[in-house]
């Protein structure tokens, strides 16, 4: 069934801290008019995640954010409204998958990111909690805390399709290969047609319903420093636009997370403009492909 509206879920947190580093990303995207662009296409509602200062440490705060976003996603879907989640951290996709588990039990995930986010506490070296988002989502780490997230059911890793990967440790590459995970890899030595390769992959996989995860560090570092982990070999501006337009032609998108953007770094306004354009393009193509049938009030 097609969605009839959009719900923008604003999650301006970095490991539970409001407006810090990538936590400022959602605020900058809204200041650049992302919500106004979306509202031109469909009725747009808002859901804000309140502060989590009373919870313990980065880990406790992070998981409380995940719990709250999961509930917000479930509520949006129950109202037949497409969840568009503007988040600091990639862990918002853990929440999205949990919030969708009842309505979409066979959920696929399209993960657009320079990193696989499959690290665990046993394999991670720099302590960056958000580098473990996909491993939480697929049931490979933080099992006890993940079980406190409403709706959390581990996804099979083979249900995840990656686009733009390029900063992946050799042991993680083996995990991806051994699990039979499909990926379109970025490259610094050759031009990659991300749209064509990802389209062919999705045509073969036939995911059906799929959550879309857009970590803006999938963009090539030549466009600006999206966050503290920029890298070469990623999406150029036209790649991003083409990929976001193509995805609704190949799957039934259930939700979208846009995350991983620290606007205080070099090129922040450029990245914000590209993200707003990508969101508008994506939502427009939701409508064109029948996944969104706007119902404006009188």
From TrEMBL:
Domain of life (superkingdom): Eukaryota
One Pfam family named in its UniProt record: Arginase
Family matches, as Gene3D superfamilies: Ureohydrolase domain
Entry annotated with the keyword Metal-binding: yes
Cited SUPFAM superfamilies: Arginase/deacetylase (SSF52768)
GO annotations of cellular component type: cytosol; nucleus
GO molecular function: arginase activity; manganese ion binding
Protein keywords: Hydrolase, Manganese, Metal-binding
PANTHER family per UniProt: ARGINASE
Family: Belongs to the arginase family.
Protein name: Arginase
Native source organism of the sequence: Akanthomyces lecanii RCEF 1005
């Amino acid at each position: 069934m097609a969605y009839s509206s959009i719900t923008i879920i604003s999650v301006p947190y970095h490991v539970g801290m409001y407006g810090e580093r990538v936590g400022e990303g959602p605020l900058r995207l809204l200041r650049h008019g992302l919500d106004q662009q979306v509202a031109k296409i469909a009725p747009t509602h808002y859901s804000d995640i309140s502060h989590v200062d009373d919870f313990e440490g980065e880990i406790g705060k992070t998981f409380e954010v995940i719990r709250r976003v999961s509930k917000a996603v479930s509520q949006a879907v129950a109202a037949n409204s497409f969840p568009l989640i503007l988040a600091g951290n990639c862990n918002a996709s853990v929440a999205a998958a949990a919030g969708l588990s009842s309505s979409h039990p066979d959920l696929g995930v399209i993960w657009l990111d320079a990193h696989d986010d499959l690290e665990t506490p046993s394999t991670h070296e720099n302590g960056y909690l958000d580098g473990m988002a996909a491993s939480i989502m697929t049931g490979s780490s933080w099992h006890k805390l993940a079980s406190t997230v409403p709706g959390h059911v581990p996804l099979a890793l083979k249900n995840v399709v990656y686009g733009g990967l390029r900063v992946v440790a050799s042991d993680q590459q083996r995990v991806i290969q051994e699990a039979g995970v499909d990926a379109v890899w970025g490259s610094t030595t050759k031009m990659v047609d991300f749209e064509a390769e990802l389209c062919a992959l999705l045509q073969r996989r036939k995911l059906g319903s799929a959550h879309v995860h857009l970590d803006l560090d999938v963009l090539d570092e030549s466009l600006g420093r999206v966050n503290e982990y920029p890298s070469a070999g990623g999406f150029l501006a036209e790649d991003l636009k083409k990929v976001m337009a193509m995805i609704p032609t190949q799957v039934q998108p259930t939700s979208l997370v846009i995350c991983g953007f620290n606007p205080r770094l070099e090129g922040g306004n450029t990245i914000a403009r590209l993200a707003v354009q990508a969101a508008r393009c994506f939502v427009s193509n939701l409508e064109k492909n029948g996944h969104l049938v706007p119902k404006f009030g009188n």
